[in-house]
């Protein structure tokens, strides 16, 4: 059974049986897949050659009428392309034209840049730092877009149900009557960057260095959202923390402290924290470990799934990640195969930091694995092959269908829209924030970073609206959901106990 082992710590709620827990477990679930893909994906070896030292222009979509219309405007980044309208309709057509105006199309053309490598931040890609230094000149000027009428209309298509956790994540601030500047400032205590959106343009104030290129790819994701839904992302100011674990402890912000409850965006959350969950950077690429942008990775996953028949797969629970970020992960490592035990778990280290951090030693502890659930789950999977396959299939189709890049964009749009509605102050650009745009990032990047940025670039605006945001859970619904989750965990624990006795 080539299934993913239960995800742990920050991403704990990604466990298969609890797809619907407090926050958008969907995004967290992804981490399991990505981690799995590290091993199975072919490693790109020759990618950098394509782009090195060259400023790449994407081909204009000149084969279509919209492309032809847009082609002349491509050099300046974004432009509205409008269908030519008859100015003197002497003979009104018998029917209104059936076609919609073509969506905006985009391309990037980089000016010759003299790349300065001085702006390097420790342990991080210099791209975003360079972009912040050079950006004011490199962002094209274009009129503030207004949403086209077709994207304002509902397309009568409900978003996947995990979108309902958008309401859950924001509920504390709704209950507090909104988000004040004092709350935002407090979120700045740990934030990696401040993001300001004003009139469809993005401004970034870097507060501290991020690990690897997380800030770059996260900001890039927001910029792509601005291209996909021009004029629809509301004015806002937010604080983003690129670190892996949630920090806004719920119990610290009760009573009078609710008035400084910080709204802090990050890639994960859990039941005892208030961090607001946002899609993680790897949807747009993770160059350090060669994780491609999501659309390409989805294709690879599909191919990989087709390549080896389920029943021919190796019967192991597989996990790869960085164990030093949490205690639960360190415990997981103890379940690895060793000279004294083989529970069919294969745990691999993707360690960014020096090993041994936080007193972690994996030697001599291999027989203390506390996750008997791992042994149980793998044994169960190997003795219920058909059912295990069905679970795997459902997880795959969830990934392929409900976690498409379209849904990721729609999730961000709905989350930011609902968030912005709660702001009780007028967003402004602080003096330290610098405008940042697709051009300023893509043109400063090099190698695999640049390749992934260009690959994940939104090339045309959406010609329909986002999916419809489902309503919040009712109090009863939420209670039932929690109940169901607790019951299935209890059930599994009972099965495990039964199995260990026999
Ligand atoms: C690029 O920068 C270097 C060092 O600052 C300078 O010597 C060189 O003339 C610059 N090149 C161009 C094309 O501006
Ligand atoms: C939208 O979907 C609902 C339920 O599927 C359907 O009853 C309704 O007629 C649809 N409305 C439009 C405008 O298509
Ligand atoms: C787990 O065991 C495998 C096989 O012996 C080994 O290659 C791997 O490095 C081990 N993982 C860790 C985290 O020690």
Task: Tell me what you see in this structure.
The protein is an alpha/beta fold. The protein has one domain (1-55, 103-147, 165-462). It has helices at 25-40, 47-51, 65-71, 127-138, 149-152, 165-175, 181-187, 214-228, 294-307, 327-333, 372-383, 385-402, 405-422, 438-444, 447-455, 475-501; strands at residues 193-198, 201-206, 236-240, 264-266, 276-277, 317-321, 345-349, 434-436. Strands 5-4-3-1-2-8 form a six-stranded mixed sheet, with helices on both faces. Strands 6-7 form a two-stranded parallel ribbon. Strand 6, helix 10 (327-333) and strand 7 (345-349) form a beta-alpha-beta unit. Helix 6 runs parallel beside helix 13 (405-422) and helix 14 (438-444) runs antiparallel to helix 15 (447-455). It is globular and about 70 Å long. The structure holds 2-acetamido-2-deoxy-beta-D-glucopyranose (3 copies). Residues 333, 336-337, 347-349, 362 line the site of one 2-acetamido-2-deoxy-beta-D-glucopyranose.
Which helices and strands, and how do they pair?
Blueprint lengths: L24 H16 L6 H5 L13 H7 L55 H12 L10 H4 L12 H11 L5 H7 L5 E6 L2 E6 L7 H15 L7 E5 L23 E3 L9 E2 L16 H14 L9 E5 L5 H7 L11 E5 L22 H12 L1 H18 L2 H18 L11 E3 L1 H7 L2 H9 L19 H27 L1
Parallel strand pairs: 3-4, 4-5, 6-7
Antiparallel strand pairs: 1-2, 1-3, 2-8
Helix pairs in contact: 4-14, 6-13, 11-12, 14-15
This protein binds 2-acetamido-2-deoxy-beta-D-glucopyranose (3 copies).
